[in-house]
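Researcher: Sequence recovery benchmark, item below. Answer with residues only.
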């Protein structure tokens, strides 16, 4: 005969709890828990199959349509339109980038709109979380902070509270006794995530997990967990810049490569709804070596300033420095400018910088980078009302790029009057309010983009 287990039950609403509670989380009655003994039902031997039956696709209903908002448009966009119940979302990023801050804000938003939220903190004490909450102006009546590293015991509490959202900060700090290794080890990370996955699915409750990554990736980071969870997003940013970019790289419920842009301020992560405006706000008109590119981050157009500086090499090999763009791409563009446009960059140091801490990775930004380098080398400014977009090929040709309409609409919205575009694929383009300058070669683009004044070198 199995030993009876003792549990506590609320007299008012019959809610169960493994420990005595002063106030029932469901019906909020005070002093209503009484202890009772229950005998576990004896395990029956099951047949090997799980009992799942094949279902016709058209007859299956999906609960994944019932998303709810995280209270932050930028995060909702990255998640594909809101939080899906039962989803496990991994938020990675370097220490200090703002993961805990962002998730505490989300916890507070969801607690006020959807119901209870549990924030399991394995790294900080409840007092430290309280300090951060005070800084963020969060009171959080329905927000439970649980300073616990034992995942099993944390999930027992979650089972009682039935939260609308569970947050685990961080996955490296929690452990499950089953794995019998130290917290943060590969085995622990895998097993803990597996536990959270099945808990989320069984309870139809979304779970946010934070995870640290290091620059060199030597310790087991959340990258090993990427294949297990439903959504993976990374919070990125430069150490000395206040902008943070949340980028999804995997999303079972939406498109990837969407970005959300935030600014870390004294009172937390503030969403940036008009990022192009901010990225261009420090731009000086008629600056030499500066060009603006309408780039795409996921489906979102973003205007970014590219700056370049070329300077005579004083000693030895010419240096090339690429901040926010691919180094190989910079070398390629310098080679094309030298060979196809007769720019003598062989004895020049060239430094290129994408401003605002943004990383430009798409080939469509080539033309603006080349324009900025040529502008600096020739000491000729780029027309301030002009923007340029296009991929540069090795023969100096300008190649077609995707989604030109969207880029042009954003450029026009921010007051740009002219745009240098590839002459291919223009028939379907319906740009309004901006004059298009179609070009087929980089040489033509430089002629159209650089103003004649200050022409000293060439
Ligand atoms: P944190 O969220 O603790 O980072 P992570 O969880 O990714 O390690 O953020 C820590 C940094 O953010 C810290 O340097 C202080 C800064 N910060 C602000 O600038 N404003 C704020 O309102 C808060 C809470 C933090
Ligand atoms: Mg943290």
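Model:
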């Amino acid at each position: 005969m199995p030993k009876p287990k003792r549990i506590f039950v609320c007299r008012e609403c019959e809610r169960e709890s493994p420990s005595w509670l002063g106030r029932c989380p469901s019906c909020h009655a005070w002093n209503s828990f009484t202890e009772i003994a229950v005998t576990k039902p004896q395990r029956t031997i099951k047949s090997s199959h799980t009992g799942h039956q094949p279902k016709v696709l058209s007859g299956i209903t999906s609960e994944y349509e019932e998303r709810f908002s995280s209270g932050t448009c930028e995060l909702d966009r990255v998640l594909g339109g809101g939080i899906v119940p039962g989803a496990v979302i991994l938020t990675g990023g370097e220490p200090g980038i703002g993961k805990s801050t962002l998730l505490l804000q989300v916890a507070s938003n969801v607690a006020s709109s959807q119901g209870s939220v549990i924030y399991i903190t394995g790294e900080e004490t409840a007092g430290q979380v309280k300090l951060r909450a005070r800084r963020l102006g969060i009171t959080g009546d329905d927000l439970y902070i649980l300073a616990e590293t034992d995942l099993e015991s944390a999930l027992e509490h979650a089972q009682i509270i039935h939260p609308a959202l569970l947050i685990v900060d961080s996955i490296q700090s929690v452990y499950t006794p089953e794995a019998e290794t130290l917290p943060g080890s590969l085995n622990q990370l895998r097993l803990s995530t597996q536990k959270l996955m099945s808990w989320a699915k069984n309870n139809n409750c979304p779970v946010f997990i934070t995870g640290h990554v290091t620059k060199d990736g030597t310790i087991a980071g959340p990258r090993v967990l990427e294949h297990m969870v439903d959504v993976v997003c990374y919070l990125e940013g430069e150490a000395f810049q206040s902008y943070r970019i949340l980028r999804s790289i995997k999303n079972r419920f939406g498109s990837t490569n969407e970005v959300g842009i935030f600014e870390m301020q004294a009172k937390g992560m503030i969403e940036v709804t008009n990022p192009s405006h901010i990225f261009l706000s420090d731009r000086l008109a008629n600056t030499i070596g500066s060009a603006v590119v309408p780039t795409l981050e996921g489906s979102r157009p973003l205007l970014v300033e590219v700056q370049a500086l070329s300077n005579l090499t004083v000693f030895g090999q010419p240096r090339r420095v690429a901040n926010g763009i691919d180094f190989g791409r910079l070398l390629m563009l310098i080679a094309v400018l030298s060979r196809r446009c007769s720019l003598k960059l062989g004895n020049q140091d060239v430094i290129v910088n994408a401003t605002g801490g943004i990383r430009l990775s798409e080939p469509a930004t080539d033309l603006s980078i080349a324009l900025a380098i040529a502008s600096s080398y020739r000491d000729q400014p780029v027309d301030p009302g002009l923007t340029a977009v296009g991929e540069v090929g090795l023969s100096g040709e300008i190649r077609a790029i995707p989604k030109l309409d969207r880029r042009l609409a954003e450029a026009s919205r921010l007051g740009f009057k002219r745009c240098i575009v590839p002459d291919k694929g223009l028939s379907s383009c319906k740009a309004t309010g901006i004059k298009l300058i179609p070009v087929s070669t980089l040489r033509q683009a430089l002629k159209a983009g650089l103003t004649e004044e200050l022409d000293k070198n060439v």
